[in-house]
């Protein structure tokens, strides 16, 4: 156990997968944790300090699945391999221990295998640094080591949370000091807890040699970065190097992200707009799910990162729109490109695996296929006249794909490829003369075995004699038990050497068979050696072109995204938005990209609505629309659709509208409903106020603000006053473009005093006492709330509805002109009592219990668990509210 303790001591915080023969074994506490997490048997083996040692194991062939499960549950694993053949160790003495060492640390941010990764999502590892010199500067570095993409950005404390929400890393490295400071300043959100890995140092001086080693000097100069950025990047590179134990991850020269190039969208806005996932954490129902028509996994990853970071530079946005527009107009070209793109595999991830010595023959083939696809696509595009700038650049990158390498790979690799190079069988016949010779020898010996079997049959006069092979005995002669005795006697016993007696048969070997065995093994070994050397040569040839191939992978992903956005735009009647640097926001006939699809599947049509929040510097900024209307009338949908249209336009996509003119939005804020923040002990109202404060403090004239029912979480007059003051501040101080939905009808009088405030309402019609939602936005303010009608639709028991109507009638009739609560109280005192007891209400569905039934605590990661808790609380709150 001494070796185990030594290795365990240098890898604290990791479950140690300790290789013993065909198993990875876990001991002590690790065994208890893993057996509980994986549902495998916990056994005992020997004792330590008088106590039995707990042990559990996973077989090598299934280790990946178990590893995957552990990582998903938030554990970190150190893989410890045998570094020599046990036979070698025996040579040093019968008691000597096989050499072992940790070859890799597996953590959520350092995954490279396909089985562990979602093909259509990036998997970022991020490192945060903090430098103090009077001010506190922060920097964030992040990389996806499965593709090599690397980024770094200098940030202020206030920008940190937004940037983290955009990147959404699987793991965040930071020091304890940084964590403590951020916690103290309330800048450490609960979402970071499950992904944080505390590291000892993040230091710009320590970083320098690491950075020089990781990136080629001609491609990247670390001194060009700030101290904070160097420190963050150094910590990242150091952690990646440590986790890969000497193998060099193919990190690309870091892209320095200047803040201010992308639309700032904070975590609450991302969540409320359901950009990449719904508030319940699902992909279905999100904006990304609705518009992702990419045909490759790298395309899907790029689409997600573009959606997460719409641009601010109108020129860059229009260049993207030009490219999309070209493919919208040319249906045939778009269809052809999309068909060819389907043949392009995930090159970036294959390259990363090859560089980390985890790649196999299929990864090599992947490089060849990607090159071939790129050349086909370049040819298609090359024939087109008047390509816009972005498509021209893509075509040039695709056309530069190394054709020779693809030809070589296609010639060398067989059609049907094994996953691993280990056992050979992947080089195409006729590629290498020597390999063909060794293989022929192998198959010839099979013929020799057949001939030998025939001869031995004749010599022994036994028709049932067979030559067989198994892993234990190698080649052997097998005869039925009844004939075995004959071979044990003269003259046969000279030739046949007894090896085994089973119930039905006896097994023998002969000198000739042993020699033959040697020859076959030799031929197989020689063939395997040749195949492995071919693999190494091809791998080096591919890796020598890493930079060019990574650029090729980028170009393929970008073409996929461009064609996919064109497909969405063309098939769903989206229009090209006019994007410029004005303060316009005029959406004619706008639709919600996700709700529209949902409504359509239900066989209904979506009602398009206009929104015009345009303004100008001269007028004091953009306009603010106050949206009133009943619950279920479509307010939230209208609000969100305009925010989503801004995102789509600025990521370079057409938008669901008849026409759209958008002056670039620098920050987008959306608060549609708020939830409690249990981790910080803040109530719904407190969260709402903190978020409103963030908007009022951070929104600029260029921002787009979408607010739904601010102030609803408190007493009516308090809520109304806060909402009133917020509208005034947005109009007078910020001057941003804003949509403000409210149930406080009193607010609508602001339109009389504030020049850029307009009232709109969601239209409804009453028909035979029922309310019909038209989902149409029209000028004016709602005259009433239709709350009781909506309550009836929601299934409130009839007696309660009837009683509510009575109360409302009395209140409406008698309270005209009465403002004080004392008067209202006397009105209520006069209400007639129920003439009869209300019918017992149907037992209400207990939604919280139902949701609890669907939860499987043992299958959840800590992160999923905290999300589930939030979800439960939300259901409970919703249920109380309704
Ligand atoms: N423009 C539209 N066309 C067709 N259906 C719509 C439209 N807008 C909304 N709907 C439908 O109405 C439902 C309710 O809309 P929404 O949630 O926006 O209402 P709301 O006024 O915000 O209600 P609440 O105040 O209760 O949140 C949507 O789920 C959708 O099915």
Characterise this structure.
By secondary structure, the chain is an alpha/beta fold. It has six domains: 2-106, MutS, DNA mismatch repair protein, domain I (3-Layer(aba) Sandwich), CATH 3.40.1170.10; 117-259, 2-Layer Sandwich (Nucleotidyltransferase, domain 5), CATH 3.30.420.110; 290-402 and 545-571, MutS, DNA mismatch repair protein, Chain A, domain 3 (Orthogonal Bundle); 433-518, MutS, DNA mismatch repair protein, Chain A, domain 3 (Orthogonal Bundle); 578-797, P-loop containing nucleotide triphosphate hydrolases (Rossmann fold); 847-881, no CATH class. Helix content is 46%, strand content 18%. The chain has a seven-stranded mixed β-sheet with strand order 13-23-24-25-21-26-27, with helices on both faces. It binds adenosine-5'-triphosphate. Adenosine-5'-triphosphate binds at residues 595, 599, 606-607, 629, 631-637, 775.
Average pLDDT, all residues: 88
Instruction: Supply the CATH class of the largest domain.
Output: Alpha Beta
Say which CATH homologous superfamily of the largest domain is assigned. Answer: P-loop containing nucleotide triphosphate hydrolases
Hetero groups? adenosine-5'-triphosphate
- Describe the strand arrangement of the main beta sheet, using strand numbers: 13-23-24-25-21-26-27
Radius of gyration using CA atoms only: 35 Å
Shape: elongated
* Helical proportion, percent range: 40-55%
Low-confidence stretches: 674-680, 830-841
Largest sheet: 7 strands, mixed
Tally the helices: 31
User: How would you classify the helix and strand content by structural class?
Assistant: alpha/beta
CATH topology type of the largest domain: Rossmann fold
Query: Termini separation (Å)?
Result: 62 Å
């Amino acid at each position: 156990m001494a070796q185990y303790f030594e290795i365990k001591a240098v890898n604290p915080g990791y479950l140690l997968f300790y290789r013993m023969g065909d198993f990875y074994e876990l001991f002590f506490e690790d065994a208890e944790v893993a057996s509980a997490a994986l549902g495998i048997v916990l056994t005992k083996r020997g004792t330590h300090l008088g106590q039995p040692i707990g042990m559990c194991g996973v077989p090598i062939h299934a280790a990946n699945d178990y590893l995957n499960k552990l990582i998903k549950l938030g554990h970190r694993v150190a893989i410890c391999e045998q570094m020599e053949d046990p036979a070698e160790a025996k040579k040093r003495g019968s008691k000597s221990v096989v050499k072992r060492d940790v070859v890799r640390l597996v953590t959520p941010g350092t995954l490279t295998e396909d089985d562990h990764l979602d093909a259509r999502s990036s998997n970022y590892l991020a490192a945060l640094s903090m430098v103090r010199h009077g001010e506190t500067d922060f920097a964030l570095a992040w990389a996806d080591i499965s593709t090599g993409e690397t980024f770094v950005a200098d940030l202020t404390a206030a920008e940190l949370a937004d940037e983290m929400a955009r990147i959404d890393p699987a793991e965040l490295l930071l020091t304890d000091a940084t964590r403590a400071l951020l916690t103290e300043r309330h800048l450490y959100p609960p979402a970071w807890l499950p992904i944080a890995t505390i590291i000892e140092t993040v230091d710009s001086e320590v970083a320098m040699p690491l950075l020089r080693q990781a990136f080629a000097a001609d491609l990247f100069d670390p001194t060009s970065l700030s101290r904070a950025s160097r420190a963050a990047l150094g910590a990242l590179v150091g952690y990646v190097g440590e986790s890969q134990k000497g193998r060099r991850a193919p990190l690309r020269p870091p892209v320095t992200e200047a803040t201010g190039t992308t639309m700032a969208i904070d975590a609450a806005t991302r969540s409320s707009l359901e950009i990449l996932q719904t508030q319940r954490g699902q992909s279905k129902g999100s904006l990304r799910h609705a518009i992702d028509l990419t045909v490759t996994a790298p395309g899907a990853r790029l689409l997600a990162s573009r959606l997460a970071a719409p641009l601010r530079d109108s020129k860059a946005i229009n260049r993207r729109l030009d490219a999309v527009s070209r493919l919208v107009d040319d249906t045939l070209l778009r269809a052809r490109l999309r068909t060819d793109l389907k043949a392009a595999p995930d090159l970036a991830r294959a390259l990363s695996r090859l560089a980390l010595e985890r790649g196999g023959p299929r990864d090599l083939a992947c490089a060849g296929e990607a090159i071939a696809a790129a050349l086909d696509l370049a040819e298609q595009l090359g024939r087109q006249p008047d390509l816009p700038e972005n498509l021209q650049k893509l075509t040039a990158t695709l056309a530069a794909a190394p054709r020779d390498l693809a030809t070589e790979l296609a010639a060398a690799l067989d059609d049907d490829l094994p996953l691993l190079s280990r056992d050979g069988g992947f080089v195409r016949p006729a590629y290498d003369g020597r390999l063909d010779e060794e293989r022929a020898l192998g198959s010839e010996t099979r013929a020799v075995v057949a001939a030998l079997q025939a001869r031995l049959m004749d010599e022994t006069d036994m028709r049932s004699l067979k030559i067989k092979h198994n892993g234990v005995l190698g080649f052997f002669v097998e005869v039925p038990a009844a004939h075995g005795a004959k071979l044990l006697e003269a003259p046969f016993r000279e030739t046949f050497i007894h090896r085994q007696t089973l119930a039905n048969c006896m097994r023998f070997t002969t000198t000739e068979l042993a020699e033959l065995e040697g020859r076959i093994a030799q031929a197989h070994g020689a063939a395997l050696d040749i195949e492995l050397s071919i693999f190494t040569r091809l791998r080096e040839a591919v890796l020598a072109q890493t930079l060019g191939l990574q650029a090729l992978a980028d170009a393929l992903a970008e073409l996929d995204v461009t064609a996919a956005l064109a497909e969405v735009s063309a098939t769903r009647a989206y229009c090209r938005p006019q994007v410029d640097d004005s303060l316009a926001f005029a959406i004619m006939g706008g639709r919600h990209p996700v709700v529209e699809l949902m409504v359509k599947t239900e066989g209904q049509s979506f009602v398009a609505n206009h929104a015009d929040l345009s303004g100008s510097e001269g007028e004091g900024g953009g306009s603010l629309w106050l949206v009133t209307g009943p619950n279920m009338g479509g307010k939230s949908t209208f609000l969100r659709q305009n925010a989503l249209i801004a995102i789509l336009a600025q990521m370079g996509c057409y938008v669901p509208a008849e026409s759209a003119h958008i002056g670039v939005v620098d920050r987008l804020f959306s608060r549609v409903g708020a939830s409690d923040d249990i981790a910080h002990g803040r109530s719904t109202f407190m969260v709402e106020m903190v978020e409103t404060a963030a908007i009022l403090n951070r929104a600029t004239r260029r921002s787009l603000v979408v607010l739904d029912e601010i102030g609803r979480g408190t007493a009516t007059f308090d809520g109304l006053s806060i909402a009133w003051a917020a509208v005034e501040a947005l109009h007078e101080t910020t001057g941003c473009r804003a949509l403000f939905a409210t149930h406080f009808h009193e607010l609508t009088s602001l339109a009389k005093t504030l020049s850029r405030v307009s009232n709109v309402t969601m239209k409804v019609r009453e028909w035979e006492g029922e309310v019909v939602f038209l989902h149409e936005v029209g000028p004016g303010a709602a005259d009433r709330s239709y709350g009781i009608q909506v309550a009836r639709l929601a299934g409130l028991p009839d007696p309660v509805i009837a009683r509510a109507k009575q109360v409302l009638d009395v209140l409406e009739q008698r309270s005209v002109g009465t403002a004080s609560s004392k008067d209202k109280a006397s009105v209520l005192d006069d209400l007639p009592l129920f003439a009869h007891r209300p019918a017992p209400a149907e037992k209400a569905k207990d939604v919280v219990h139902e949701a609890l039934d669907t939860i499987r605590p043992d299958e959840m990661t800590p992160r999923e668990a905290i999300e589930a808790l939030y979800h439960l609380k939300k259901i409970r709150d919703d249920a109380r509210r309704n």
